[in-house]
Amino acid sequence: MEWYGALAVLLGSIMVLMAVGMPVALAFLAANILGAWMFMGGGAGVTQLLNNGFGSLTSFALVPIPLFLLMGEIFFFTGLGARMFNAIDKLLGRLPGRLSYVTVIGGTGFSTLSGSSMGSTALLGSLMVPEMIQRGYKKHMSIGPILGTGGLAIIIPPSALAVLLATLAQIDVGALLIAGIVPGLILAGLYIGLIWLQTRLDPAAAPAYEVTPLGAGEKVMLILRDVVPMLSVMVLTVAGMIGGIFTPSEAAAFGALGVLILAVLYGGLTMDALRKSITGALKVTLMAYLIVFGSATFSQLLAFSGASRGLIDWATGFELAPVAMLLVMFAVLLVLGMFMEQISMMLLTVPIFFPLATNLGFDPVWFGLIMLLALEISFTTPPFGLLLFVMKGVAPPETTMRDIYTAAFPFILCSLVLVALLIVFPALALWLPGR
Amino acid sequence: MRPLVRAYEAVLTSMAVVAGSMLVWLMVSIVWSVTMRNFGMQPPAWLFTSSEYALLYMTMLGAPWLVREKGHVHIELVTAALPEPAQRVVSRTVAALCVAVSLVLAWKGAELFLTNVERSDYDVRAYYTPKWILTIAFPVSFSLMAVEFARFVIGPELLHSGEAGVHE
Amino acid sequence: QDTLTAVHAFPETLIYTQSFLEFVDKVNERGEGVVQIDVRGGPEAIGMFQQADAVRNGVVDMVYTPGSFYGGALPEKDALVASNLTAVETRENGGIELIDSIHQEKMGVKYLGWFDSGVCYNLWTRNAPELDADGNLDVTGLKLRGNAVYNAFFTDYLGAQVIDLPTTDVYSALERGVVDATGWTQIGLIDLKWNEFLNYRVEPCFFSTDLGVIVNLDAWNGLSEEARTVLQEVAIEHEAASVEALKEKRDADFAQLEEQGMQVVELEGQARADYLAAAREKTWARMKGLMEEHPMGAGNYEALIERFYDPAADAQ
Ligand code: NA
Ligand code: NA
Predict the structure, then answer these.
(1) In a designed cystine with A367, which of A145, A362, B149, C279 is the match (CB 3.0 to 4.6 A)?
(2) Residues A367-390: what's their mean pLDDT?
(3) Is the pLDDT of residue C280 over 50?
(4) Between vectors from CA A23 to CA B104 and to CA B61, what angle results, nearest 5°?
(5) d(CA C61, CA C39)
(6) Chain C residues interacting with chain B (CB cutoff of 8 angstroms)
(7) Residue A356 — pLDDT band, cuts 50, 70, 90?
(8) How many residue pairs bridge chain A and chain B with CB atoms within 8 Å of each other?
(9) Sheet holding C263-266: strands in order across?
(10) What are phi and psi of C143, to 5 degrees?
(11) ipTM score of the complex?
């Protein structure tokens, strides 16, 4: 079968199945059975599908997701989260959308270091979304910034994905990491501008009620009692990672332990809260893992059947101006990214894109950064970005996929603006690493 | 019939409880091995391997329970736009399709399990673990998922709510 | 004309994959009109550790993978791991023929060739490695990265504190000081950029790479006589050619590392002999134990060692 036939079969079946309301994980599995049967030699292909699922599930890289979820759920159900956000609310006074800013700043700080976009989306989603909705924020004011921080996490160092990309593409790891700093700060600035704009256009999106001004003593008291201890769990988790005490994958376990200890100290740890936290974390983990199980093999089918390679070769086969070529590559990444996971995409595209980029006269570090952005954007692009489903799992039950799509959209736009800026002013990326 | 159903429900729930314990075990095993390591001791290798295996068992043991809880996300854009009788047909058809998928995987999973036994395959990590101990999770899990989806085909409840705005 | 589908275990940019792709090009050139290999991709097409099962089950016809990735099915791969010879000598002395027959019997696959052999492993460390009074390597306090292949040697003999990490996590683990030493092949450190953190190489090197091409037996038997001849001939030529190519690559890598300040610490005399013997014997012991559990038994044990290990080669 020609590559476009394979592509049509695979993408067509998954889109139809999801559209008629088949659970996402089952839709992937169904498309996999069909694809495995067609492209991997019948029944043996379906067995291979199970072997693949086995391989992708027994991988330590998945460990942070349930543990960050557990951390977030314990924060929420023991009332520690409420304490912290009440305090921040009082401290920041009447700035509209203050918790959205807190999400961008805190979320960037955290997810940038945790190294797992799914894990940190899970943590921030389960922690922030219910709290912010309780305080009268519209959903998009919490969901949007959380989905946005993933994009920051991947380009602000340290970034595990950047290291992997640099290794695969044989470019300077240090230069790629440093190249992400300025664009990362610009993106954070765009997010903050966006939130400001959203609260200006729709003042009802975030509560702007009067708060009684606090005396200096009360402020210090609030900070010491309700903010510092909670933040210190995150700070210690991050410090342990930087200090080499544990790896990023292991850090989540210590985060969860830290919150448990705090909950005991603050007297919020009831049996009921513990049971609810574990159940909540388990539900989202199972949902996300079964999707990982299905989508990992789907990625492989796209590659093995020749569909994705065909698409790449076709798209890059045109004789276009360098910038147009760049946009084509960017678009290919976005399309593939809706259905494939990030590491498979890198393995597939790096050997083709980097030589091409060099031929076109692009700086490989600059191109690497653009590619990282495309990878992360695709993770949150409707309709199938994986983080959108994780968010659906952790958000309150009345949140619809449509809510999540509309919340994600403006933040994706910010990332696209950043890409445009990088194309027009490559120095934004290349000045700091001195290239 | 009644006690049989209740026994089945109990099995499903206890599988979920085991899955929850696996989640807690992940935390405990990691904290344990990192602590040992930082005190200059060699954490036993099974600690690391057990957490990787826990990921698989957790997913497979918990997945049927999650079907009952309607926790597998789906997109309800098309179904919500249909008139109610059509909705019901689509919802039950989708559930039936899920049953079919689960059955195929249960069947292939059973085959894989038998092959692993017959070939005496090992999963090689810190230890050589007989692979069937792990792959037996597939037929068990997917069979029970098939049963749970079947309840949405013929039972009183529907998999979809039909209310895109509310219970998607 | 026959066509075989193929996948490779490592990413396309890695040197070992490039070597396999060269082999494919040679086959496709010489086999025009007779046999062609259609490469479907690497770990993005079929997971690294699932490729051996895929070729056994006929999902794909040919796989290029380290034997260690299917050591659970074929513990005899440890004969290659502990080997101090290359494919050239073991092709001549019947070693590869023996390993091929074991592959056919245990896994239903044809062992076509042992590529990229003659490359061994070193221990690489961040800080100057310490030697005890007898000149033995002292690993106390060393945070050593391990995996299933090394651990029999690292933990059982060296008594090291091993941290199991996948290759992809090693860079950041070195960066943050989670580990400060690792084993790796003589080649490839620069490609992985680990040389940014590692400053010492411990000699002698131990073990050998065990990368080989396996072909589904039904697919192999279904080929025309002519196709099989082309494949086997090209494979034998590539076995020899890849030894030479990688020797050059190793010398170039070593020179580049030395230029950047990589220092070499050499174990000597009895300490050196003990180190090498331990690496070898711990691996053989593991192989024997696992062979005995299999219905086929350990009957081939002596024959494997005789063909894949030459005591005279260590003395140099
Ligand atoms: Na980062
Ligand atoms: Na995606």
Answers:
(1) A362
(2) 86
(3) yes
(4) 60
(5) 10
(6) 68, 71-73, 141, 148, 151, 155, 161-164, 290, 293-295
(7) confident
(8) 169
(9) C161-164, C143-146, C181-185, C121-125, C200-206, C263-266
(10) -95, 95
(11) 0.87
How does pLDDT run across A231-268, given as a tens digit for each residue? 788 778 777 877 778 876 788 889 889 989 999 998 88
Alpha carbon of C55: minimum distance to chain B alpha carbons (Å): 15
Per-residue tokens: A339: 């259905």
Determine, for residues B108 and A49 on separate chains, whether the beta-carbon distance falls below 8 Å. Answer: yes
Which strands make up the sheet holding C2-8, listed edge to edge?
Answer: C35-41, C2-8, C62-66, C211-216, C109-114
Among C71, C161, C294, whose Cβ lies nearest the Cβ of B124?
Answer: C71
- Domain spans in chain A, listed from the N-terminal domain onward: 52-430
Residue A358, token pair as written in the block: 């060099």
Instruction: Indicate the pTM of the whole model.
Output: 0.85
CA distance A352 to B112: 36
Cα–Cα distance, A311 to A308 (Å, whole number): 5
Q: How far is the CA of C69 from the centre of ligand 2 (A)?
A: 29
Q: Cβ of B8 under 8 Å from any chain C Cβ?
A: no
Query: What is the CB neighbour count within 10 angstroms for residue B79?
Result: 25
Most confidently modeled range among A108-112, C142-146, C312-316? C142-146
Between the two ends of chain C, the Cα-to-Cα distance in Å is 48
- With cut-offs at 50, 70 and 90, classify the pLDDT of residue B166: very low
Q: Is C23 a residue whose pLDDT tops 60?
A: yes
What is the DSSP secondary-structure string of chain C? -EEEEEEESS-TTSHHHHHHHHHHHHHHHHTTTTEEEEEEESTTTS-GGGHHHHHHHTSSSEEEEEGGGGTTT-GGGHHHHT--S-HHHHHHTTHHHHHHHHHHHHHSEEEEEE-S-S--EEEEESSPPEE-TTS-EE-TT-EEEE-TTTHIIIIIIS--EEEE--HHHHHHHHHHTS-SEEEEESS-HHHHTGGGT--EEEEEEE----EEEEEEHHHHHTS-HHHHHHHHHHHHHHHHHHHHHHHHHHHHHHHHHHHTT-EEEE--HHHHHHHHHHHHHHHHHHHHHHHHHSTTTTTTHHHHHHHH--HHHHH-
Dist CA A189 CA C291 (whole Å):
62
- Cα distance from C245 to chain B (closest Cα, Å)? 31
Q: What is the dihedral of CA A300, A120, A25, B19, to 10 degrees?
A: 110
pLDDT higher than 80, residue A32: yes
**Exposure pattern of A296-321 as b/e (b: 16+ CB <10 Å)?**
bbbbbbbbbbbbbbbbbeebbeeeee
Of A20, A57, A250, the CB nearest to B59: A57
Cα separation values, A132 from A83, A192, A284, C1, C28, Å? 13, 17, 20, 66, 62
d(CA C164, CA A409): 40
Rounded-to-integer distance, Cα A210 and Cα A212, Å: 7
Name the residue ranges covered by the structural domains of chain B.
2-154
Q: Are the beta carbons of A394 and A357 closer than 8 angstroms?
A: no
Note the pLDDT of residue B167.
39
Average pLDDT over residues A343-367: 85
Looking only at the bridges linking them, the beta strands covering C62-66 and C2-8 are: parallel
Give the Cα separation of C235 and C41 in Å (integer). Answer: 20
Q: In a 3-state reduction of DSSP, which class is residue A355?
A: helix
Q: 């290349």: which residue's tokens?
A: A430
CB-based contacts of A379: which residues, under 8 Å, 6+ apart? A117, A150, A337, A342, A385, A386, A387
